[in-house]
């Protein structure tokens, strides 16, 4: 893996954004809409419950953290889709670029675009609704990193699915965060769920992040054991996603699937 080749992937994405600034809009617009919508819902619920319950930190904070995971995932997959949409995938791998270089470039692109979305969310939530991320303290930082690694893993796995099934399957990728959200307890404890959903939720690293967030807001602090387990899960996700992408890529090369890769179908 060479840094210059990895940075070349990032540089291509920068050129795309510079040549078409409208690509910046989705990185900010959707998260801004979510923050505004949930901000007013939180303000309304706060008026009903009174100042005893810190709904801004527990609900608006949960929305912000979950959107952050979605932005990280979409940062990786969108960078991959740019190569699919422009039919540039074959050109890229006609160069000495390795699969590690390419994935590294996707990850760095995801970091940049997700940070842009996070800054927009924090600015809006802080200035309009009085949300302060500092209310969580430093204890939330490692849990945010867990969300970040999980988002990267989902992005790489989504790219592998599209590479294997074809460009039309991108519509399977966008709803992944929404499909996972009921199981990870973004707005409620896992104990609220039926047993089979709790079992799935315990296998998902974000579940422990939101459990920790609620504990911090309630003044109970974060559980170190939960953090260690969530870190372990997120590392397994990342290694597994990279392994799956590499396997799918080699399969596409071996079967000739990659040569028939087009904007509409792949078989």
Automatic annotation (TrEMBL):
The chain crosses the membrane at residues 24-41, 53-69, 89-108, 115-134, 140-165, 172-190, 227-246. The keyword Membrane applies. The keyword Nucleus does not apply. It comes from the Bacteria. Keywords: Membrane, Transmembrane, Transmembrane helix. This is ABC transporter permease. It comes from Phenylobacterium soli.
């Amino acid at each position: 893996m060479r840094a210059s080749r990895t940075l070349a992937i990032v540089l291509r994405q920068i050129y795309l954004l510079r040549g078409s600034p409208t690509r910046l809009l989705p990185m900010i617009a959707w998260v801004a809409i979510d923050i505004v919508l949930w901000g007013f819902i939180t303000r309304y619920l706060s008026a009903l419950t009174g100042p005893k319950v810190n709904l801004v930190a527990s609900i608006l904070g949960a929305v912000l953290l979950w959107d952050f995971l979605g932005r990280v995932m979409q940062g990786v997959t969108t960078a991959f889709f740019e190569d699919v949409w422009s039919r540039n995938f074959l050109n890229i791998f006609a160069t000495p670029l390795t699969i590690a270089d390419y994935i590294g470039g996707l990850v760095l692109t995801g970091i940049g675009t997700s940070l842009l979305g996070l800054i927009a969310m924090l600015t809006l939530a802080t200035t309009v609704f009085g949300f302060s991320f500092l209310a969580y303290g430093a204890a939330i930082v490692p849990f945010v990193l867990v969300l970040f690694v999980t988002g990267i893993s989902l992005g790489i796995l989504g790219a592998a699915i599209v590479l294997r099934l074809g460009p039309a399957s991108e519509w399977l990728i966008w709803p992944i965060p929404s499909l996972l959200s009921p199981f990870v307890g973004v707005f409620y404890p896992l104990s609220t769920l039926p047993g089979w959903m709790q079992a799935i939720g315990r296998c998902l690293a974000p579940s422990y992040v939101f459990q920790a967030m609620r504990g911090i807001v309630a003044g109970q602090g974060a559980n170190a054991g939960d953090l260690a387990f969530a870190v372990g899960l997120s590392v397994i996700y990342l290694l597994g996603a990279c392994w799956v992408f590499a396997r799918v890529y080699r399969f596409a090369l071996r079967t000739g699937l990659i040569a028939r890769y087009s904007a509409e179908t792949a078989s």
